[in-house]
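User: My instructor asked us to take a sequence, write out its structure as tokens, and then describe one feature of it. I'm not sure where to start. Here is the sequence I was given:
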Amino acid sequence: MKSLAYDRELAIWNTSRIFAIGVDEVGRGCLAGPVVAAAVMFDWSNPDPIRNLADRFVIRDSKTLSRERRRSTAEAIRSVALAVGIAEIDAQDIDEINILQATLKAMRAAVMSLSLPRRSTNLKLGEEDESKEGVLVLVDGNQRIPLLDLPQETIIGGDDKNFSIAAASIVAKEYRDTLMEKFDLEFPGYDFSSHKGYGTKVHQAAIRALGLSPIHRKTFWHG
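Assistant: Let's start with the prediction itself. The structure tokens for your sequence are:
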């Protein structure tokens, strides 16, 4: 299994001097835990480290990777990327604003948290600056991120088509899996380490026996 091609991002840089930012989410369909989004931007002006990353690791949809491979790949992505942003929206907020809005909110926060090296200081994309014109946000799915004053392009199935989005999916999933393992210790009996909050038969049986925990999405449970 090989990494996805990064021709699209490299072409964007070569033709327009624009940095592509890949954005993806994980945990949208879970019964428990937050929805997590990640944004990843590589330095396309220096493609050699990216090429090495793609050769040494498999950068594609996070669901195609084993946990062990995903963990090492996420670490490698973080070490090579120019900037990585992560955001999570918890179960209470999901219940209040619905999962679609929570997902888009997490994506927006992940992008806005990116810090880009600029001269001797760091610039956050949320700040007013002309550098906004030098990025393009590639979003997994068919929904543009609202209230984000940046150029965007949506890509349906982007985590299995686009290198940067796939990198974001790997970072987001590894972050969320680790978080759910911590929740397993905090809320024993639900087996969060195993199913990561998804609605497996074991998870549903635990809810019926123990009731809903503070990290469960009340609007998702109809058992």
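For the description part of your assignment, you could build on this observation: Residues 30 and 198 are 4 Å apart (CA to CA). Try explaining in your own words what that tells you about the chain.
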